[in-house]
Write a structure and sequence with these properties.
This protein has 307 residues and is an alpha+beta fold. The protein folds into three domains: 1-127, no CATH class; 152-236, GMP Synthetase, Chain A, domain 3 (2-Layer Sandwich), CATH 3.30.300.20; 240-304, Ribosomal Protein S8, Chain: A, domain 1 (2-Layer Sandwich), CATH 3.30.1370.50. The chain contains ten helices and nine strands. The protein has helices at 9-20, 54-87, 96-122, 137-144, 147-154, 157-174, 199-203, 208-224, 238-260, 271-282, and strands at residues 3-6, 27-33, 47-53, 180-186, 189-195, 230-235, 264-265, 287-292, 299-304. The strands form three sheets. Strands 1-3-2 form a three-stranded antiparallel beta sheet. The chain is elongated and about 105 Å long. It starts with a strand and ends with a strand.
């Protein structure tokens, strides 16, 4: 099965036919899923179609018919031999040599016929090449079980970075924005730096749109590659500016908690932002912090440290 995607079903079909070099009359086309527009550019899914050559399907059917024909001929010849054997009558000990000769002669007459018909039917079938004596066990395993190649491809961070970048670009395109994305990688971390003349539309109120964009990119990475990878999406210097703001805010909250002696519960934050707050609070004497709740409503609580 060869799957092709596109913005619409027609685009996916055209792309598949061009890539396979087929026309509609020589292709079997099956629509797997139609496109989804989503909401505000989120949740959009491309159309998927499965395209196969009709000639390949015809070849597969011919091979199946040939196998069925071989089986039918073999069964029919076996029945003929059984009927012929039953027709041989053993009269007594005196006639035993003659009947035995008759039975042997019958078998000798049928066996060439069986060989000819079965051989003629089997010739169109292709046999799998047997491993040569010189092939090692490791070579056999590498040939027969090549799943390791697919796994090696899925953990290629360069390919993963390119694909997640293309995914984010499609989302931004649906938002009707002009933007360029620069990709950098460090070990298992993928960084997407977005440059656009309208950063506010990508950042959103209190960074909500940017957080949603990063969540979509992270989920795409998990679904198509590895959960060992992580992705960070930044617009201009928003992440750095947001980090400074969180550190200043954490220091002010810590002073308020020390003065009042009462705990302070912050607004819900992402995992990365909570880490920034916890690290900032850990450098201030007399206060401590911990997280409560479940994502996406998990928040940080700043409290007086118990000595």
């Amino acid at each position: 099965m060869v799957v092709f995607t596109g913005r619409t079903v027609e685009e996916a079909i055209s792309k598949g036919l061009d890539e396979l070099g087929l026309t509609r009359l020589k292709a079997h086309i099956r629509v797997i899923s139609r496109e989804k527009k989503g909401f505000l550019g989120f949740g959009k899914r491309p159309a998927q179609v499965d395209i196969e050559s009709l000639e390949l399907e015809k070849t597969a059917r011919t091979s199946s018919v040939t196998r069925h024909k071989v089986t039918s001929i073999t069964e029919r010849l076996n029945r003929d031999m059984m009927q012929q054997n039953e027709s041989v009558t053993i009269v007594g000990t005196s006639n035993e040599p003659a009947s035995a000769k008759s039975e042997v002669a019958t078998k000798e007459e049928l066996e060439p016929k069986v060989k000819e018909e079965v051989t003629a039917s089997i010739q169109p079938l292709e046999e799998e090449p047997a491993p040569s004596a010189g092939d090692s066990f490791e070579a056999f395993v590498a040939t027969a079980f090549d799943n390791n190649k697919d796994e090696a491809q899925t953990i290629d961070i360069t390919e993963a970075a390119t694909q997640v970048k293309n995914y984010v670009e499609r989302i931004i395109y649906e938002m009707d924005l002009e933007a360029s994305i620069e990709t950098t990688t460090k070990r298992r971390q993928i960084n997407l730096q977005i440059e656009t003349p309208e950063p506010g539309r990508i950042i959103g109120y209190h960074g909500k749109v940017l957080k949603s964009l990063q969540l979509l990119a992270q989920n795409y990475l998990y679904d198509h590659y590895s959960k060992a990878f992580s992705v960070s999406v930044n617009v201009h210097d928003y992440v750095e500016h947001r980090t400074e703001t969180l550190i200043d805010f954490s220091q002010k909250i810590a002073s308020r908690v020390l003065a009042s002696g009462q705990d302070f519960r912050m607004d819900p934050m992402s995992n990365s932002e909570r880490k920034i707050v916890h690290k900032a609070i850990s450098h201030i004497d007399g206060v401590d912090s911990y997280s409560e709740g479940s994502d996406p409503n998990r928040y940080v609580v700043v409290t007086v440290k118990n000595w």
